[in-house]
Amino acid sequence: MNFHQKPNTFVSHVSLKVTDLNRSLQFYQHIVGFDILERTQNKVLLTADGKTSILSLEKPENVQPKQGRTTGLYHFAILLPTRKDLANFVFHTVNQGVQLGSSDHLVSEALYFNDPDGNGIEVYTDRDPAEWKWQGDHVVMAVDPLDFEDLVKEGHPEAWQGLPSDTVMGHIHLHVADLDQTHEFYIRGLGFDVVSRFGDQALFIATGNYHHHIGLNTWNGVGAPNPPEESVGIDHYVLTYPNETALHLVCENLKAIGAQVEKNENQIITIDPSGNRIILTL
């Protein structure tokens, strides 16, 4: 899990907008396995370790259903500590009747499904980084069939007890409108490195030689519009930087490329060229 701590920059939290808070809470507790850290009338902070929130749910006033062919969330990805945890989660979700997609990405094994509002979720586990193959500074990834028969040998049908305490937010994958503008913002502005590229359709970026902390694609169409402010989907996500020096440098780099920068106490708020709001913090 050292890809999600200092000295790396990583996604530490995702905030979602939903239409029915109680329905979503039921799903994220009983299907995904979160616990409640804090709750108000319109917002819930969810946790795996009982101390830190990695996901929050909020119901905006005048909320609108999720709209297709816009920028915004493709999926957020929950990283489980071990392959055994993923196998146990397979048994649990099958027992709950969840319809799963799946893939072997060579660097990881992943399950895919949606929440009740259509927000995309990935639950995955990483293979040993020593097994990842690199071609120069790009990691080799694929979209191969997941070997469920081999995976479930690691688990037990009754073993799932909710998310393990050392679960983290592994990465986020976003729909964007323009890959060139996105590249400038995330690489020159936020300080990430490109670790994989799928032609002119998708970028995968990271720090610390991870396979990706952020995925960015134009699969909803080049020039896709931003969703309405009240639409179901992502409200914002949080990037955690290792120290004040790194955060200050990013702030200056964002200003240099003309990006919006708003300072608020010990955090910075910015918006990428496709309208995705990001909170930068320590």
TrEMBL record:
Protein keywords: Dioxygenase, Metal-binding, Oxidoreductase
One MF term in the entry's GO annotations: lactoylglutathione lyase activity
Sequence ranges assigned to domain VOC in this UniProt record: 10-126, 168-282
Classification via SUPFAM superfamilies: Glyoxalase/Bleomycin resistance protein/Dihydroxybiphenyl dioxygenase (SSF54593)
InterPro entries: Glyas_Bleomycin-R_OHBP_Dase (IPR029068), Glyas_Fos-R_dOase_dom (IPR004360), Glyoxalase_1_CS (IPR018146), VOC_core (IPR037523)
The organism's place on the tree of life at top rank: Bacteria
Annotated Pfam families: Glyoxalase
PANTHER family: CATECHOL-2,3-DIOXYGENASE
Name of the molecule in the record: Catechol 2,3-dioxygenase
Source species: Gracilibacillus ureilyticus
Lineage: Bacteria, Bacillati, Bacillota, Bacilli, Bacillales
